[in-house]
Amino acid sequence: MNQLGLRLTSASVRVSASSSAPRFKSRWGTRRLHQRQSLPYPAEEGLGKFLPPDALKVQLEYQDGLLERLNEQVVGTGDASSSIAQTVINLSGKRDRILAFNYASLALNNSFFLNNLKPPSNNTQTHEDGISSDFISNIRTSHGSIQQLRSAFSAAALGMFINGWVWFVSDQAGNTGIVSTYGAGTLLIRSRSYMQKHPNILDSPDPSSRSEVTPLRSPFAQNPPPGTSPASPLSGISGNNSPPTGVNPLHPRFFHDDLSSITTTAAGIHSTPSGPTRRSRTSTMLHAGEILYPLFCVPVYEHAWMSAGYGIWGKEQWLKEFWSVLDWQKVDAAYFNILEAAKEKRN
Predict the structure, then answer these.
(1) What is the mean pLDDT of residues 135-148?
(2) In three state form, how does the secondary structure of 119-167 look?
(3) Does the pLDDT value for residue 254 go beyond 50?
(4) pLDDT in tens, 279-306
(5) CATH number at residue 301
(6) Structural domain contains residue 215
(7) pLDDT tens, position by position, 72-115
(8) Which domain holds residue 260?
(9) Region (Disordered) spans which residues (predicted)?
(10) How far apart are CA 31 and CA 15, in angstroms?
(11) Phi-psi map region of 175: left, alpha, beta (phi>0 left; psi -120 to 50 alpha)
(12) Which pTM value belongs to this model?
């Protein structure tokens, strides 16, 4: 560890007894250092076969490394005292701060990922008993069944051959789908008014701040206004504003397999269903909400499954274990929080 890293570490140790957040002194005044949030479960016990104790330790070391490097990047700036989410907002689109942005965005994603997990149950194979009847009804309408959702989500992750994240998302109307982002792309700071209330984000942005971040839009939304673009280091998607065209109108990073009107999906990511398909979409899909909100995610990084003992080609088996530790009760709460926030906004 370099001298700066040692100074930061020693400083955080010195103040830990008197403050919940480490601070350092500089000519800019007293600043809060970013630090890893405590997990909602004992780290030393691991997360079953998905992240055994040593593998979970690697994930935490990765998180610590991201935050340590972020702290080095923001020393002496206003971002040293901002939340991680606010730092991502502040640095988005600033080419000269891309390294700090990447560290902050990855740390935010990884924290969200870990906070949506819980140790496996001794009595059941999953935590799906935490899903409410209303939410399970939505999943069945949109995806057919929990098993089909799991299959589509895992297929999206298996279809990624570069580092990134796969997300299960909802829009404000309650429609759900699957989205992939690449590299340090994130979906976690799209709507500060909602994320301020998100039960699974431990480091929320300042809702009073302003940002030029463009929300990620569903492929079912209207064309963006002139002069706007979805291109952003937050999304990992291109700046092409053209509406979806052709017989495969869904962008391969978004899947909303509404059984009432299935269209052909991207080859190699989600297999085409058997039997006849309909090319036209229902009015429900056409009027789906524009902003997408994350419910849970999984990292597509080799160190995750390799550290869990699955080897370099063990991603598929590792993903099967993900469903044994996903905290569906938290996901359910987040889903209805989205709907409630949207209702409040309309009123």
Answers:
(1) 95
(2) CCCCCCCCCHHHCCHHHHHHHHHHHCCHHHHHHHHHHHHHCCCCCEEEE
(3) no
(4) 333 334 423 446 889 999 999 999 999 9
(5) 3.55.40.20
(6) yes
(7) 999 988 888 888 999 999 998 899 999 999 999 999 999 999 99
(8) 128-346
(9) 198-250
(10) 12
(11) beta
(12) 0.69
